Amino acid sequence: MKYAKGLGLSLAVSLLASTALAEIKVGFIGSLSSDTGLSTLRGAEMAIQELNAAGGVLGQQIALVTADTGEDVTEGVKAYEYLAETEEVDFIISGSIDDVSLGWLPRMQEYQIPTLDTWTSYIGIIDMVIEDPETMAPYFMNIASDEALATLYISFGADVLKAKMGWESVVILAEDTAFGGAITGLVTDALGPVAGIEVKDIITYDINTVDFGPIFSKAKATGADFIYQVSSVNPQVISSQYVKLQVPMPMTGVNVAALGMEYWEDTGGAGGGISTLSPVPSVGFDLDPVSAQFVADYQAKYSTRPSMPHFNGFNAYHGLKQAMAAASEAGGFQDVKAWNAAMLKQDLKLEKDGKLWLRYGFWQHGEVEPVTGRTYPQNGLFDLSPPYEDAQPSMVVIQWKEDGTVGVVYPFEYANTELELPSWIKN
Amino acid sequence: MGLRWFHFAAWGLFALGLALLPELVSKGTLRTLIFANYLAIFAISWDLLSGRTGYISFGHPFLIGIGAYTSAILTKRFGVEVEIAIPIAVIVTMIAGLIVLLPALRIRGSYFALVTLAFMELMYQLVQVIRPDLTGGTRGMSGIQTLTRGAVNGFYLSSVLMFVIAVAAWLLLRTRIGTALTALGLNESAVEGSGLSTTKLKMFAFMASAFVAGLGGAFYVHYLGSIAPRALFDINFVFTIIVAVLIGGASTIVGPIIGAFFLTFLLEYLRPFLPGAERYFIYGGIALLLYMYQPKGIYAMVMKAWHSLHERATK
């Protein structure tokens, strides 16, 4: 009898202990040393902090574990395996770049762990969802995929570069990378023909170039109306030299460095006049009250860079909450099919001045986007047509001014400034 | 060949240990072991060429990548059965090995190392721009057919592959050809003076190394299920392979295996405590200490300890 009582007591204590220890485990996969990775990590941390303060999810507290990829593809596979097999996480939030995500995707298909990608925009992954919806059921991407980004960007060429600025010819300055090649293809094959802009020349430069003087001279000699830069590696070098050399031609394009608030500091204050495509919400983007509060809380909590979360920080903050809400509805993360169905129903509408401003929801299977005429299942919602009543545009174009401020110049419905020529060209 | 019973006993014990591991360790550890096995294969491949002949290759991922990309493209883009794709990938890699051999007929030392590095860089650029519809361009490919599912199956497959390659290479290097290759690394002119064809010997070493690299690369990509140029044609990948060989002990076959296991486990076991890039400082520090204390690697330390114990026991 004594033994039976003791056993019963032990069992009760064990049960209580295991209940107290029960937790939902979230894994972060991404770089712990890049602004990109840290944006997703911190967005997730803040969402978890708020959810835990409100009592957790399904009566359990949420714990976060991290796995660094160092933006390395193989490390990404190892990191995913670590989260799945060693940490046994319930849900994974990713701030991975394109090839790193593609690297761990087969592991996600194998483990079937619900996973939300907040940075990768590769349309090929959405195509995988269409081709194999069953094994891709755990996967969601809450940034507009690159086809949607490109489509709206072509409209910028027609509406602003041609119609407003009156530019009719362009010289492309593209870095010697596949990214440079891909964007150059977009400009020559789509943006140029659609907007009616003639491509005078394509100048490819090495990513280690430190002196852009001769390259800018060559660009000027083409007689083009403006320069289109494509720069993802060391982009602060080309933009700061453009300003310091006071190149007498306007320059726009894609400059990855300009996506963060640190751009001004990184260029030594010589980055004015540069404009670039950015996913939403970008730097210089007018924020709705909920997003503004998120940024205020973020800045109160973190003192190191990035001083403002990149777009994927917002995606992680809202996306993680949506993933947990879906888990609550589906009774957890174990039944992936149920979680997938609940996740597809998530729809957060954020308004600004009585107008829909940002929307965090997902395209449904079979739902056709009217402009591109294709489907984007499990991809974050976007709208490609003004006045953007269904969701936010897939991207905006921002411009850094010579006084260090930054604002949105396109689409017009979201613009808070106008595309301007640098002072040395205006004068 | 100087083979003794205890050599086979040691290999047998190693095989037994590998076979029992899934019963003893977690699945997470098995996943780490799989990467260690593949790194060991690549390190053996590098050791066959550079450890023996002294032709230091900085472009070894060039060969590994060709094996991996060939098999990936054949299976994913052309629907070729993986059983056929892997042998083709090995043959293609061996042909590529001949290309690497050409500069070795004229140059050696740092010049040869730089030429091989250039091969890797060239390949890195080519796979991104030439037929990206086949190679997947800068992002690479995902959804490549995998040979196994689950940690245990993946571990057994990689272990068998690594073990067979290791024993075969170990036996090969105990033959007269192995001795000639070692001599080639010590003094090429002397080997030539003794009437042996250094060109044929070099060709043999390059072909053997390319065979292992191609085989390892092809199996590796069918384990990962994905491939990207940054993952393979990368200077960090070269350094990882070379450091594994040097930490373990070059020109020994066993050394690169020890080095690969040590390196992979060190980095993975540090992950929970140092999740960021700080792990690499620890790894660099340990590697530095090892080089300072025993430049011939862990294998030499183990052998020294073994001989010392043996001497004490026989006194």
Largest interface: A-B, 34 and 38 residues
The CATH superfamily label of the largest domain in chain A reads Response regulator
Total tally of structural domains of chain B? 1
Enumerate the strands of the largest sheet of chain A in spatial order, edge to edge or round the barrel: 2-1-3-4-5
Runs of chain A in which pLDDT lies below 50 for 5 or more consecutive residues are: 7-20
Percentage of helical residues of chain B? over 70%
Number of strands of chain A: 16
Helix content of chain A: 40-55%
Strand order of the largest sheet of chain B: 1-2
Gyration radius of chain B, in Å: 20 Å
Description of the structure:
The complex is a heterodimer of chains A (427) and B (315). Chain A has 427 residues and is an alpha/beta fold. Chain A has helices at 2-21, 35-53, 73-86, 98-111, 123-131, 146-162, 178-195, 213-221, 235-244, 263-266, 289-301, 311-330, 336-344, 423-426, and strands spanning 23-30, 61-68, 91-94, 115-117, 139-141, 169-175, 198-205, 226-231, 251-255, 275-278, 347-352, 355-361, 368-369, 374-375, 396-400, 406-410. Helices cover 42% and strands 19% of the residues of chain A. In chain A, the strands form five sheets. Chain A has a five-stranded parallel sheet with strand order 2-1-3-4-5. A four-stranded parallel sheet of chain A has the order 7-6-8-9, with helices on both faces. In chain A, helix 2 links the parallel strand 1 and strand 2 (61-68). In chain A, helix 2 (35-53) runs parallel beside helix 12, helix 3 (73-86) runs parallel beside helix 4 and helix 6 (146-162) crosses helix 7. Chain B contains 15 helices and two strands. A two-stranded antiparallel ribbon of chain B has the order 1-2. In chain B, helix 1 packs antiparallel against helix 7 (151-172), helix 3 (60-78) packs across helix 10 (198-224) and helix 4 (82-104) runs antiparallel to helix 10. The radius of gyration of chain B is 20 Å and the shape is globular. The A-B interface holds A 32-33, 66-68, 70, 72-74, 77-78, 81-82, 85-86, 98-99, 102-107, 109-110, 122, 124-125, 128, 177-179, 181-182 and B 26-28, 30-32, 35, 128-129, 132, 136-144, 146, 149-151, 224-226, 228, 230-231, 234, 236-237, 268, 271-272, 275-277.
